[in-house]
Write a structure and sequence with these properties.
The chain starts with 13 loop residues before the first helix and ends with a helix. It is elongated, with a radius of gyration of 17 Å. Helix 1 runs antiparallel to helix 2. It is mostly helical. The longest helix has 27 residues, at 40-66. The protein contains 2 helices and no strands. Helix content is 75%, strand content 0%.
């Protein structure tokens, strides 16, 4: 006998969300390092990467829930 799958369509949410959360963490670390070193370029780049990670995580969850 086979167990019924928790993911009926075969798409897992773990991979995209973990990747997006890691991007957000790396961006936040770059933002903190840029501010500590008084580097506006690194701080701005870190902010962009962190926001991109958050947006990708939200998009992944919304797409998964909507269908």
């Amino acid at each position: 006998m086979t167990r019924p799958s928790a993911e009926p369509r075969g798409r897992s949410l773990v991979g995209p969300v973990v990747g997006a959360v890691l991007a957000a963490l790396v961006g936040a670390a770059a933002l903190v390092a840029g501010q500590a070193d008084d580097s506006p370029g690194l701080g701005g780049l870190g902010l962009l990467v962190a926001l991109t990670g958050v947006v990708l995580a939200v998009r992944s969850v919304r797409r998964r829930r909507s269908g």
